[in-house]
């Protein structure tokens, strides 16, 4: 996957060097060289667009789904609560979030080992938003050749209104993206109402403006620069590739030697392969590479070049699949191996992590208790002659409804509880309750006694009990 292997100069067909008349000398790795992506229809392009629209709509709609008196997905950083439909994740449960990130990581490793960079080509936000921005570009400035001519033309009314309309559409989409993203952390009605009525806080305005500019810059201007120069995934994905990984590949044995010809000409008589050197595969590539030069780390496996090549093959009356999803072994005529140790290993770890996450989510306790001993005094003798220890109980109601909780102690005989034995805690609240436990010295056989403080409640008709171990000190 050597990026320097691309020796063919195709800058005439795919890049225009801004403010440089000698465009033929343009370097495709120079961020100042713009790629004019050509629109293409086909199986993989249609699949990518549909997946992009689904991902976009899912992102936009999710904060608006109601769940009781709140939105279904709400990352409440102020109260340190993550609401995901009926599940509330507290700071004490952040191991669930860590497990979720591990599942996402191993899912990415598994998919990359098997199908290459399909995440980049079909579901990566950078790709989804970039293609949406390109869609606005095509609708307002025209097809690829028209956009090239428009950028080369001097400024005129036609050029000004088209550029203005395009950038306005980009900014509106960027603003919608930013406000939707902020809505995952701030209630959506507050975001949309307060921002437009100028009643939002400075923090909300900052993040809305920040993510608006980030989206506008990434999808409108940087585009393939993010994939080629900044995305770390492009750098380490080669460690997961092997010769059985599905990639977008060009069948050089069938395609070479390249050359133009008429539809009626026999390529074998002309000493040519099936590739007519139309360069459409380069023109439709969002990262500007020539897939005919072999596997390159810039390829995001979007399949646009497959659709372009298949259309050309169909017009020429040649078999499809000159460029296709294939493997290096298949291109070399070696038998493919679907199941291999690395893929099986990723799959097993992924399955185990998913099972652990499901179990942990299903068994998450709806109540939590922490015990803090009085650090100023291990024990004291009260006026009744009892040895008394003081504790501070922190009881967290992790549900969204109020419940009554009762406290008790195990490990002590004939103890006396100083403080309320029953409390009611509102949903999502933490109660700090100082209590003391007194015991007659004759009931104690050691200076340190292991005890358990228990909290019981009833949730949805079922008894829920949590317990916490502590120590009872005495002379």
UniProtKB/TrEMBL annotation:
Signal peptide: none
Record carries keyword Transport: yes
Keyword Electron transport: yes
4Fe-4S ferredoxin-type domain span: 266-294
Transmembrane segments: 51-67, 94-115, 168-186, 198-216, 343-362
GO cellular component, one term: membrane
NCBIfam families documented for this protein: ccoG_rdxA_fixG
Name of the protein in question: Cbb3-type cytochrome oxidase assembly protein CcoG
């Amino acid at each position: 996957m050597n990026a320097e292997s691309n020796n063919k100069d195709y800058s005439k067909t795919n890049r225009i060097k801004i403010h440089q008349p000698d465009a033929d000398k343009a370097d495709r790795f120079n961020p100042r060289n713009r790629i004019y992506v050509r629109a293409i229809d086909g199986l993989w392009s249609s699949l990518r667009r549909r997946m992009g629209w689904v991902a976009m709509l899912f992102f936009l709609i999710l904060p608006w789904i109601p769940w009781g008196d709140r939105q279904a997905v709400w990352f409440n950083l102020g109260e340190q609560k993550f609401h995901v439909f009926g599940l509330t994740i507290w700071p004490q449960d952040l191991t669930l979030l860590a497990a979720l990130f591990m599942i996402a990581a191993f899912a990415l490793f598994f998919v990359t080992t098997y199908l290459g960079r399909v995440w980049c080509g079909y579901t990566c936000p950078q790709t989804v938003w970039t293609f949406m921005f390109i869609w606005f570009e095509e609708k307002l400035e025209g097809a690829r050749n028209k956009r090239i001519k428009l950028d080369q033309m001097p400024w005129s009314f036609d050029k000004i209104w088209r550029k203005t309309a395009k950038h306005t559409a980009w900014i509106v989409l960027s603003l919608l993206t930013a406000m939707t993203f902020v809505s995952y952390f701030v209630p959506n009605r507050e975001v949309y109402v307060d921002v437009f009525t100028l009643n939002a806080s400075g923090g909300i305005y900052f993040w809305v403006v920040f993510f608006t500019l980030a989206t506008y810059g990434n999808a409108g201007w940087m585009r393939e620069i993010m994939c080629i120069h900044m995305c770390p995934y492009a750098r380490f994905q080669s460690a997961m590739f092997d010769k059985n990984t599905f990639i977008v590949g060009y069948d050089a044995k069938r395609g070479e030697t390249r050359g133009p010809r008429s539809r009626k000409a026999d390529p074998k008589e002309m000493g040519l392969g099936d590739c007519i050197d139309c360069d459409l595969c380069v023109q439709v590539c969002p990262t500007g590479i020539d897939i005919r030069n072999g596997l390159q780390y810039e390829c995001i496996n979007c399949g646009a070049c497959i659709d372009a090549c298949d259309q050309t093959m169909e017009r020429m009356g040649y078999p499809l699949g000159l460029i296709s999803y294939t493997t290096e072994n298949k291109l070399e005529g070696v038998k493919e191996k679907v199941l291999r140790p690395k893929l099986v290993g990723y799959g097993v770890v992924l399955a185990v992590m998913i099972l652990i996450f499901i179990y942990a989510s299903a068994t998450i306790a709806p109540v939590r208790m922490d015990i803090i001993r009085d650090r100023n005094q291990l024990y004291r003798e009260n006026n009744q002659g009892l040895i008394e220890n003081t504790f501070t109980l922190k009881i967290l109601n992790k549900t969204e409804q109020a419940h009554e909780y009762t406290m008790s102690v195990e490990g002590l005989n004939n103890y006396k509880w100083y403080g309320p034995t029953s409390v009611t805690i509102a949903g999502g609240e933490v109660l700090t309750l100082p209590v003391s436990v007194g015991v007659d010295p004759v009931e104690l056989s050691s200076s340190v006694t292991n005890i358990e403080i228990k909290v019981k409640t009833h949730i949805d008709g079922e008894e829920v009990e949590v317990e916490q171990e502590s120590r009872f000190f005495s002379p």
